[in-house]
Amino acid sequence: xxxxxxxxxxxxxxxxxxxxxxxxxxxxxxxxxxxxxxxxxxxxxxxxxxxxxxxxxxxxxxxxxxxxxxxxxxxxxxxxxxxxxxxxxxxxxxxxxxxxxxxxxxxxxxxxxxxxxxxxxxxxxxxxxxxxxxxxxxxxxxxxxxxxxxxxxxxxxxxxxxxxxxxxxxxxxxxxxxxxxxxxxxxxxxxxxxxxxxxxxxxxxxxxxxxxxxxxxxxxxxxxx
Length: 225
Known about the structure:
Keywords: ATP-binding, Ligase, Metal-binding, Nucleotide-binding, Queuosine biosynthesis, Zinc. Its EC number is 6.3.4.20. By secondary structure, the protein is of the alpha/beta class. The chain has one domain (about 5-215): HUPs (Rossmann fold, 3-Layer(aba) Sandwich). It is about 35% helix and about 10% strand. The chain is built from seven helices and five strands; from the N terminus they run E-H-E-H-E-H-E-H-H-E-H-H. The chain has a five-stranded parallel beta sheet, with helices on both faces. It is globular. The mean pLDDT is about 95.
């Protein structure tokens, strides 16, 4: 029987690495992205490029309107994207985003008879988001197996977060081993429509430092000035 997995794909560095890792494990990969009202919409184009380059079975984009509730610099144009590191949970945190994304991925996984959902969350080089912690992933997996037919009758489903304990440099090195072209990806919180990165936000900082620490040339296309 074909081994299927749903991969949450943002078009960024981490989720692209996770997709490559799932493919290397022999999964037939179904990639899932979200048009959730984010200001950095270039990531959706990047997710399409990545899916095609790494050979997924199907790429699906689900539309949500998280911008209708706001509460984040990524969904509310009135909140500026910070360009310096901050203490605590930053304003780029999108309320309940990973909970919502995983819930929809869980539904698609049931339809596909996929027993694994992969997500690129990371507890080492991350921005302080509460829904990127091991405790959250473990808790959601318990909920998934309580609330679904596959959990109750068909052996269960796993939430896989293979980058959880890796630093950004280790993630990049693993991706390079798997042949990932990081030039296809977009990580910037305020990238232009063409995918040019600002070079100043937290996502850009972590990405740039990761490439430097990995000893790999940074393929990111930055805005001039």
